[in-house]
From TrEMBL, chain A:
Residues 189-201 have a biased composition (Acidic residues). This is Uncharacterized protein. The chain crosses the membrane at residues 36-57. It comes from Glycomyces luteolus. Residues 176-201 are annotated as: Disordered.
UniProtKB/TrEMBL annotation, chain B:
GO terms for molecular function: DNA binding; sigma factor activity. The lineage of its organism: Bacteria, Bacillati, Actinomycetota, Actinomycetes, Glycomycetales. Residues 115-166 form the RNA polymerase sigma factor 70 region 4 type domain. One of its GO terms (biological process) is DNA-templated transcription initiation. NCBIfam families: sigma70-ECF. This is Sigma-70 family RNA polymerase sigma factor. InterPro entries: RNA_pol_sigma-70-like, RNA_pol_sigma-70_dom, RNA_pol_sigma70_r2, RNA_pol_sigma70_r4_t2, RNA_pol_sigma_r2, RNA_pol_sigma_r3/r4-like, WH-like_DNA-bd_sf. Belongs to the sigma-70 factor family. ECF subfamily. Keywords: DNA-binding, Sigma factor, Transcription, Transcription regulation. It comes from Glycomyces luteolus.
Amino acid sequence: MTEKEPEPEDEDLRRAVNLIGKEAGTAPRKRLSGGVIAGLLLGAVLVTFGALILFTADFGGDERQPFVQSLSEAENIACSEFIAVGEVVSTAPSDVADRIVVTFAVEVPLKPAASQATVKLDVLDPGLSDPQSDLRAGDRVLLEVPQREDFPPAVYRGSYLDSRVAEIERYLDEASDTECPPYFQEGGETVEMEENSNDGA
Amino acid sequence: MPRQRSTKAQRGASLLTDQQEVERVRAVLALGGVPWDDLDDALQEVRLKLLQSRSKPALETIRSPGAWASVIASRVAADWHRSRKRDIGLRERLAARWTARPPEHPQEDRDLALAVAERLELLTDLQRQVVALRFYVDLPVRDIALVLEIPEGTVKSRLNSAVAALRSRMKVEEIR
């Protein structure tokens, strides 16, 4: 079915709506208040669902593909470059904005099965998207670092850590024979937002 | 042993860690009627729903993860008013922002945006939702129908009535 071409006034409307959106999007942020409660909920869901929001996308043509995909636990592990329990020794800003270098003392390596006692990881700062995932020196956490550099690591701590480790251990064998879907692999296609793409209205 | 990760920025859509994506979601929330003071709370709710979507089968079929976050934001906005008051000061907030700092946009565009902002407040939640998805997120009608799980005709009907209401205001502004 062909959609009609946008009328000139639609373009005016689009311009106005985008201007409103731009202003709203950059409006001053308030500091944590009610958001703290939502953040706690978010943390709980992170644990409950072993949280990693996973996307796939198709840019190759007209064929419509699912772009939100639930990875299985095995795929989740297969798509992780590094999974271990340990202590955050220190964090420092990376050379790249929004990334941090985490010095991590490994206690229980899960993937790979063997690891140096201390590793340095340059990752997207998980605290940016979720205050509960903020990493600080002295934190004992389970860290799941995805292959893709533009996805933040998943962070588990406290009472949720052990249950998540048990879950991962249950799927480790299966994960060794599981392929990470291409989109989630390192070097997978980076999503570009289509500015003003217009398929008609 | 994990390698030292490269320093090249591979920024893309992820769990709303990209600043542009966050701003986009906040914009959709505001266009959907979430009061500006509630935007951060609503943003957290969007993140929550993004995470919850992991437990559901892959039903959604639109082009980009960023667009999917916007779709969820539009749903959060549409639901926001059921338990909370909706924004009734969008035009005033815009005017205040543009009064407080040097104008970055042509006067004509600002006037148009102010007129549309005022009129947006008179639309229903569902009309605002399709306006945001069509004109801000730039989703085609068929994709809006798909993600909202409603017939295309319903989307077009909501869009037509919303656009008619918005245009009427735009024309009034133009002849002043």
